[in-house]
Specification:
Number of strands: 12
Shape: globular
Helix content: 10-25%
Bound molecules: protoporphyrin IX containing FE
Largest sheet: 10 strands, antiparallel
Distance between the termini: 32 Å
């Protein structure tokens, strides 16, 4: 596939990031006045003080002083690329999403990231990777804001500040903990054992990918698709890299990070520049939208659980090709915003308590990070679909809105008197019935924190298991508080006895006995295989 310069709708926002860039051959001031000299300030005599009247000096220095915006509170370090997604039509029966109809091509922008490091941290740290995709569909922007690990650390968004505070650098010395090697992280996940499943994926080779091009991506939450007939299906989204899944060893990651902290972003940009466009198949696991939203005993609303692919195979519904590097890191990669609440007709949310909290958090943080309420107008964020939103004014307003009536419908301006029935083509939330008593309590189906972690461990090959043992042993050896190390060993005992005893031996501690029943190895299905047919009908 060649570069997608123009979208299916003919719009070129995002594809034309040079909008408002520099023009002409003369150096000018910000208001276009030609300048004679930008190397010497205006001084009182050749050795005197700078004059306040030097507008060029003040403009140049002051603009520089304000060049930085806050980095993202999480996922600060990232690399991105433009691409195109083509649907194969396999999802048409279960969703009315226009961009999933057969043969439709949609522009995309993908930002990969590490979660915990700052903007200047190394690419190669052991960490979860973000995999955020913006689809510029004809029905507006759809953001799938996922990770390279299929489950999350916590079950409820209200704990997100806590897990992030535990994972970010210590507040006294600001020493980065990109390898999670410190007391607060292990304190948190050994106290909040729902984090154990995600953590074992981090401690596996999945935590140190070889390349951004060789990572899977997961939407993690269960989403609800709705078709033209109003029928609903629950789904989990998957990205499968055509290049396969590859990781580094810990030693390789250390060397690569030491010699080239930009290892991953360089690899991505170089590959695209060379025409070796990375591709991912996009797929869904589907589940009947039953009242209890359970599947084979797994609570689909618990984001710390996955559904093994033997139980629900991934059916491919399209393919994405990344084929164009950003021209300007700040304008595109830094200013892009993703929001799980950006949904298009045909895709709805579920009541996963983690997803529910995310629906608030992203827009809220972007109001600060991107300087006010008009960040959707930044070229990289603009939809490739008409916008007629009645939102007005605010900091950094770039639109010059005509007409007198900023409300809908109105009988004064031409394009707002509802030419089509309001329901037609609109986003409609799937109606849901509730009968519930408010409480701060999770269902008992959220209680099992260990069995899928054990299942994952036992699905690995012996050499992969060896890597997991080494990773825990190394990381826990950096945890100075023995109470925390012992508490984490207790969690490992509940995951897998051999894993626990190997790590305990490495740490010079006794292996505790499990406090929870550990699943029978022989009957555990592997979690990482693909296969089978899709039972959509
Ligand atoms: C940023 C994924 C949970 C708050 C991000 C990004 C990704 C991501 C990929 C980076 C987006 C980019 O490249 O710009 C996920 C996943 C989650 C999850 C997969 C769980 C399944 C949460 C929760 C919260 C949260 C529970 C808060 C309650 C944020 C915030 C940002 C962010 C504030 C920064 C956004 C920005 O500055 O634009 N997340 N996240 N995330 N996430 Fe999450």
């Amino acid at each position: 596939a060649g570069p997608a310069n123009v979208s299916a709708t003919g719009a070129d926002y995002g594809a034309a990031p040079t909008t408002n860039a520099q023009q002409g051959r003369r150096l000018t001031s910000a208001v276009g006045v030609p300048l004679r000299n930008t190397d010497h300030s205006l001084t009182a005599g050749p050795r005197g003080p700078i004059l306040l009247q030097d507008q060029h000096f003040r403009e140049k220095i002051s603009h520089f002083d304000h060049e930085r915006i806050p980095e993202r509170v999480v996922h600060a370090r990232g690399a991105a690329a433009h691409g195109v997604f083509e649907a194969n039509g396999a999802a048409e029966k279960i969703t009315r999403a226009a961009f999933l109809k057969k043969g439709v091509q949609t522009d995309t922008f993908v930002r990969f990231s590490t979660v915990l490091g700052s903007r200047g941290s190394a690419d190669t740290a052991r960490d979860t990777r973000g995999f955020a995709t913006k689809f510029y569909t004809t029905d507006g922007n759809y953001d799938l804001v996922g990770n390279n690990i299929p489950v999350f650390f916590i079950q409820d968004a209200i704990k997100f500040p806590d897990i992030i505070h535990a994972g970010k650098p210590h507040p006294d010395r600001e020493i980065p903990q990109a390898q999670s090697a410190h007391d607060t992280f292990w304190d948190f996940v050994s106290l909040h054992t729902e984090g154990q499943h995600h953590t074992i994926w981090n401690m596996s080779d999945r935590g140190i990918p070889r390349s951004l091009r060789t990572m899977e991506g997961f939407g993690i939450h269960t989403f609800r698709l709705v078709n033209d007939a109003g029928e609903t299906t629950l789904v989990k989204f998957h990205w499968k890299p055509k290049l396969g899944v590859h990781s580094t060893t810990w030693e390789e990651a250390q060397i690569a990070g030491g010699t080239d902290p930009d290892f991953h972003r360089r690899d991505l940009a170089d590959a695209i520049e060379a025409g070796a466009y990375p591709q991912w198949d996009f797929g869904v696991q589907t589940f009947p939208d039953t009242e209890d939203q359970m599947f084979e005993g797994i609570d689909l609303l618990d984001p710390t659980k996955m559904v093994p692919e033997e139980l629900a195979p991934v059916q491919i519904i399209g393919t994405m090709t990344l084929n164009r590097n950003p021209i300007n890191y700040f304008a595109e990669t830094e200013q892009v915003m993703f929001n799980p609440a950006n949904l298009v007709p045909g895709i709805d949310v579920t009541y996963d308590p983690l997803l529910q909290g995310r629906l608030f958090s992203y827009q809220d943080t972007q109001l600060t990070r991107l300087g006010g309420p008009n960040f959707q107008q930044i070229p990289i964020n603009r939809p490739h679909a008409p916008v007629n939103d009645m939102l007005r004014d605010g900091f950094h307003q770039a639109g010059v809105h005509g007409g007198v009536a900023a409300y809908h419908p109105n009988s004064l301006d031409g394009n707002n008197p509802l030419p089509t029935p309001p329901e037609e083509g609109s986003y409609i939330e799937v109606p849901q019935r509730f009968e519930a008593v408010t409480d701060r309590k999770k269902a008992a189906t959220f209680d099992d924190h260990f069995s899928q972690a054990g299942l994952f461990y036992r699905s690995l090959t012996p050499v992969e298991q060896e890597h997991v043992i080494s990773a825990y042993t190394f990381e826990l050896s950096k945890c100075w508080d023995e109470t925390i190390r012992k508490r984490q060993l207790q969690a490992l005992a509940n995951i897998d006895a051999t894993l626990c005893s190997e790590v305990a031996t490495g740490l010079g501690l006794d292996a505790p006995s499990p406090t929870e029943p550990v699943e029978d190895t022989a009957t555990s299905p592997a979690l990482s295989q693909v296969g089978g047919e899709w039972p959509v009908d």
